[in-house]
Structures are given as C-alpha cells and as structure tokens.
Design brief:
Blueprint lengths: L2 H4 L3 E5 L4 H12 L3 E6 L18 E5 L14 E4 L6 H6 L1 H22 L2 E7 L26 H21 L3 E6 L14 H11 L3
Parallel strand pairs: 1-2, 1-4, 2-3, 4-5, 5-6
C-alpha cells in the first residue's frame, strides 16, 4: 500500500443515498477523502449516488444501521445522516424512525469509539417541537409532545443528541451535533411533504 493511499482520510456517511448524504459524498470525494456510503434505501435513492459507483474512492454498503455496523479498516470520521426526514416518511414508518435515531446512533457511536473517529450527527429544528420562542437559540429546550404524531421524529432526534453527548462526556468521544433547519436543492424530493419542496414543486408546475 502506498503512503499516499494509507494517509487518505476515510469517512463513513450514513444515509448516503439521501438528499444531504449524497451531496456530502460528492463533496468529500472532491476534497480527496475515501467515502464509505451506507444506506438501506428505505427513503434514499440509489440514483443519487450511482454516478459514484465506478470511483475507487467510493464504497457503498447496503445496510440498515439499526443492525450491528462493521466497517473494516480505519475510519477518521462518521457522519450520521440516516433517518427519514419528511413527515410523509416518518409518519408512515414511525418505528423505523425511532430505531434509526436510537439503535442506529448507538451502533455508530460504538463504531466511532472503536475506530477513534470523530462523530457528527444530523439533528433537526424539530427537536424544539412546537416552539414558543422565535427564533430558537441553543439555550431553548423546546416544547415537544412525545406522544403526538410528530413525536416519533422529534424524540428520535432528541435521543440522538442525548446519547451523543453521553458518549462525549463519559467516553471522551470527539462529537459534533448540527441542528438542520430548512434545506433545498438538487435531488430534493418534491413530494416529501415539507413546505419548501411543496413550494418549489408548485412553482415548477405553474404555467406562465
């Protein structure tokens, strides 16, 4: 193995076939990383990443992160983006949504600990629930109904944050949490039930 190859940073991206995960895969490959994309394709689409399949810098694991996760070799970073993100999806598969936020995050934190990898989770503005403070700052704890219809997503993400911080404080794991609000762009599903995709979908269909 050449020294150049051995020094190449390796990054695992879960939810790699989703909207954000696929763009992150593109970006990290462009910046010289070796990317391992992982997805069970429940809500992601292979079309989003199939252009990467011929590249030696990309590997794809068809895997459900709620099951034990094994990746051979070193890992420098883990980006956990696996989760249904739209109301249409997580209301249809509520148990899977809870499992990917709880069991999936636990499995990946264990992997990060084993590999001594920096760990980042994609959280969401939904951790604030139906907020009573606008705009929300990081000192605001939210107003969440845990047994409401959206509670499966909100609580999955809140648990993700809690267990990530527990690994940080107890095991000294190098962790990051990002709370994503509204996103849009290429590969966005126009039928995913969120406001921005619905707006853009309507705009595209309007006859001028």
């Amino acid at each position: 193995m050449s020294s150049n190859h051995s020094s190449q940073k390796r990054i695992l991206i879960t939810g790699a076939a989703g909207f954000l995960g696929s763009h992150l895969s593109d970006r990290f490959i462009k910046e010289g990383y070796h990317v391992i994309g992982m997805d069970n394709l429940v809500t992601g689409s292979k079309r989003n990443i199939e252009h990467l399949f011929p590249l030696k810098e990309f590997e794809f694991y068809f895997h459900d992160v709620t099951k034990f996760v094994h990746v051979p070799g070193k890992l420098d970073y883990i980006l956990h983006f696996a989760s249904p993100a739209s109301p249409i999806d997580y209301l249809k598969i509520p148990i899977q949504t809870l499992k990917v936020g709880s069991l999936g995050t636990h499995n990946l934190l264990g992997l990060a600990k084993e590999k001594d990898a920096r760990f980042l989770i994609a959280s969401t503005s939904e951790i604030y629930g139906d907020p009573m403070v606008h705009p929300q700052n990081e000192e605001y704890w939210g107003n969440v109904n845990p047994i409401g219809p959206r509670g499966v997503y909100d609580e999955a993400k809140r648990f993700m944050e809690a267990i990530t911080m527990a690994y940080h404080t107890y095991h000294g794991l190098d962790t990051r949490i990002i709370r994503i609000f509204n996103t849009y762009g290429p590969r966005m599903r126009l039928d995913d039930g969120r406001a921005l995709p619905a707006f853009f979908g309507q705009a595209i269909r309007v006859k001028i």
